[in-house]
């Protein structure tokens, strides 16, 4: 509607001042209604510890006072614009200036009550002023060039130009800062825009200009009052504010530059003579730039920015660090060295400074040290070994990097270099900290795990959390390494933590389940057996497969519990099928850890006896890639199973030279291979499965090809002489009931 009225007034049918009055009154009425609801609402409780009753009442009534003051300012702005068409030509300027003054006072009072942040250090305030003065001078120059020079006197024109420059840069700063989505920033930006529109109205009404010039005041005036109302609700409920973001630098540079270029082009096109005031305003841009460079954070010798002092620092770009109000804490006793040191508070302050460096830069490294014994861990907590650790760290870092003590077994390093240089720094730290340490009576070596996270555009607490997640990943992958944080890593770690939390007690809660995949004879496609596959039906995490489940079970030392459950349920199901007259075998998978347990063979014999099963109906499979580490014990256990009559199988056979060499030592009956051995290679030697089948025939092994997913693979396995197969191309894994229904399609078959 506002756009249509502006177009109509610009085309000529409607009077411009009437459109200004109508749009401003409508916008103010809408914004005033929203603010009135906030002002008329019940007081919000905001009692704090130590408050007196009177102080609590004042704090609870504060939102209503803020809303009332902003409501009055918005209504006054609308009334100012509305009375201009009704006033005489001689009185319009007085009415506009009076309304401007009233609105400015009301906005100032409301914003003062709304937010009263602690004052940052003097250096921060000077930096803010320098950052704002340059764009402000440029916008004032653009206003001076565009404002009418004949109908408005030079003093009034200069005052209006300076006011427009100040208000415009205030709005720009509020709406591009790290808290630009917060309610307070929106209220400040809305107030600045509203006052900008009123300044334009007051200036234009002072001269003899065409009415259509007043339309320039409509966008900032209407947009300002609506933005104020929109920000008030969020400002009175800070919990709705989103987290801080990096400063939007480009609008602060582009908007003043475009305004100056456009105003200068219009000035030159008009053929006007050079103006001394314009020259002075142009020269006024230079001192803020010089002051800004003088206040720039210290630079390290290699060209990178050093973190600001721990007691409080300015963000490059004119904003103070979020943690600048936090009082500085004394350095930790354990964080010793020649460079900057500190604790968690100091670290968060340094990260807040690095977050908004344009362009965003910097990184955090969380260093964790792992002692080989309890005695060494106790010495690591003492002063001597801890001092040597930090001495080595300081020898690697630059003079501006911050070392902070934030963990019980390590430290954190905040650096302002880019991510690649930070990763290189992490590798140098690993090399330095893993060198042997001299302790009483011996030389010990510590293991090091380092997590790295970038600081640009991220809240300090989030950076610290991300770096710690990366550190945990480094621990899981074997230590003595640097791991880089990314979103996928966080998903993996969170998933891992969820698994570790939910897995204990899963057996007792009845959350485990077995599915069965039939094993078929390739010659006649008749089922001869089934493989039991474990599934964890977690009500929290969904269905978890063994590939994800078993590593967590090993770390939690519950593999034995899961293995006992699988053996019992698989044998129970096999007994049910045997009682119904089916002669099938049941294959179960065991880990090397389970197989090498001393009681595995007698426990298996006890389960078979409990269900009255013939031992040769059970097949115990162990994965080949993990056998080599415990080969003698594995051989002994497999031999013990075969002495019972239980058949054994080697799963996931890779057909490598080492695998073929150890195959002769393993007492097994079946060899399970993947489909990759069936696929024909690029040379003329044919598929590798021919070699495996030949070796199997010589050793008396039956070959089972698993994971067959196409008829071509099935045909290839059959041509090679493989007797058995399993996979989606033959039968999919299913519950016991579905597998029984599948078996009904075939006559009873023996092994």
TrEMBL record:
PANTHER family: CYCLIC DI-GMP PHOSPHODIESTERASE PDEF, SIGNALING PROTEIN YKOW. Keywords: Membrane, Transmembrane, Transmembrane helix. InterPro entries: Cyclic-di-GMP_PDE-like, EAL_dom, EAL_sf, GGDEF_dom, Nucleotide_cyclase, Rev_trsase/Diguanyl_cyclase. Residues 496-747 form the EAL domain. SMART domains: EAL, GGDEF. Residues 304-322 have a biased composition (Low complexity). The keyword Transcription does not apply. Residues 300-341 are annotated as: Disordered. This is GGDEF domain-containing protein. Coiled coil: none annotated. PROSITE patterns: EAL. CDD domains: EAL.
């Amino acid at each position: 509607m506002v756009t249509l009225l502006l177009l109509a007034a610009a085309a000529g049918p409607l009077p411009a001042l009437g459109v200004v009055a109508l749009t401003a009154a409508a916008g103010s009425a809408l914004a005033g209604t929203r603010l009135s609801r906030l002002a008329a609402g019940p007081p919000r409780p905001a009692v704090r510890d130590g408050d007196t009753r009177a102080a609590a009442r004042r704090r609870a009534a504060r939102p209503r006072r803020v809303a009332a003051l902003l409501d009055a300012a918005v209504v006054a702005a609308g009334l100012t614009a509305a009375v201009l068409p009704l006033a005489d030509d001689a009185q319009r300027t007085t009415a506009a200036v009076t309304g401007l003054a009233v609105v400015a006072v009301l906005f100032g009072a409301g914003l003062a009550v709304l937010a009263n942040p602690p004052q940052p250090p003097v250096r921060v305030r000077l930096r803010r002023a320098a950052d704002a003065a340059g764009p402000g001078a440029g916008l004032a120059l653009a206003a001076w060039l565009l404002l009418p020079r004949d109908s408005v006197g030079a003093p009034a024109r200069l005052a209006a130009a300076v006011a427009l420059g100040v208000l415009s840069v205030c709005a720009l700063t509020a709406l591009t800062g790290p808290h630009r989505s917060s309610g307070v920033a929106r209220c400040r930006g809305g107030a600045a825009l509203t006052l900008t529109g009123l300044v334009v109205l007051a200036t234009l009404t002072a001269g003899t200009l065409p009415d259509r010039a007043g339309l320039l005041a409509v966008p900032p005036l209407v947009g300002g009052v609506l933005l104020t109302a929109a920000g008030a609700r969020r400002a009175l409920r800070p919990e709705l504010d989103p987290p801080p973001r990096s400063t939007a630098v480009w609008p602060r540079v582009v908007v003043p530059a475009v305004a100056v270029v456009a105003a200068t082009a219009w000035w030159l096109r008009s053929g006007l003579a050079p103006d001394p005031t314009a020259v002075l305003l142009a020269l006024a841009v230079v001192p803020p730039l010089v002051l800004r460079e003088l206040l720039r954070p210290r630079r390290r010798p290699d060209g990178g920015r050093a973190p600001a002092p721990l007691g409080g620092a300015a963000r490059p770009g004119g904003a103070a660090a979020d943690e600048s109000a936090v009082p500085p804490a004394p350095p930790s006793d354990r964080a010793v060295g020649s460079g900057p040191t500190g604790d968690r508070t100091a670290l968060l302050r340094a990260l807040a400074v690095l977050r908004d460096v344009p362009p965003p830069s910097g990184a955090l490294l969380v260093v964790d040290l792992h002692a080989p014994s309890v005695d060494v861990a106790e010495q690591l907590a003492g002063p001597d070994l801890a001092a040597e650790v930090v001495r080595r760290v300081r020898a690697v870092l630059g003079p501006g990097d911050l070392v902070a003590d934030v963990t019980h077994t390590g430290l954190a390093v905040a650096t302002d270099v880019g991510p690649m240089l930070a990763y290189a720094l992490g590798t140098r730290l690993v090399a330095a900290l893993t060198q042997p340490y001299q302790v009483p009576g011996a030389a010990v070596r510590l293991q090091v795990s380092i997590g790295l996270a970038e600081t640009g555009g991220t809240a300090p607490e989030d950076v610290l959390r991300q770096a710690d997640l990366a550190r945990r990943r480094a621990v899981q992958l074997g230590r003595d390494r640097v791991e880089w944080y990314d979103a996928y890593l966080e998903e993996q770690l969170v998933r891992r933590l969820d698994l570790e939390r939910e897995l204990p007690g899963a057996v007792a809660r009845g959350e485990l389940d077995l599915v069965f995949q039939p094993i078929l004879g390739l010659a006649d496609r008749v089922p001869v057996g089934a493989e039991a596959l474990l599934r964890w039906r977690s009500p929290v995490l969904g269905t978890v497969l063994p590939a994800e489940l078993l590593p967590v079970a090993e770390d939690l030392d519950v593999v034995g519990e899961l293995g006992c459950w699988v053996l019992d349920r698989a044998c129970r199901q096999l007994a049910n099928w045997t009682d119904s007259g089916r002669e099938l075998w049941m294959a179960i998978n065991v880990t090397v850890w389970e197989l090498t347990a001393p009681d595995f063979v007698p426990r298996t014999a006890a389960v078979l006896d409990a269900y009255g099963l013939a031992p040769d109906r059970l097949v115990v499979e162990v994965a080949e890639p993990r056998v080599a580490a415990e080969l003698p014990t594995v051989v002994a256990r497999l031999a013990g199973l075969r002495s019972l009559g239980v058949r054994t199988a080697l799963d996931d056979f890779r057909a490598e030279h080492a695998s073929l060499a150890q195959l002769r030592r393993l007492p097994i009956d079946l060899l399970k291979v993947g489909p990759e051995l069936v696929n024909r290679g690029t040379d003329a030697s044919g598929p590798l499965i021919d070699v495996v089948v030949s070796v199997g025939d010589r050793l008396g092994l039956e070959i089972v090809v698993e994971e067959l997913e196409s008829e071509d693979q099935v045909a290839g396995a059959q041509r090679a002489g493989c007797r058995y197969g399993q996979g989606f191309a033959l039968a999919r894994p299913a519950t016991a009931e579905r597998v029984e229904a599948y078996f009904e399609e075939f006559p009873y078959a023996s092994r």
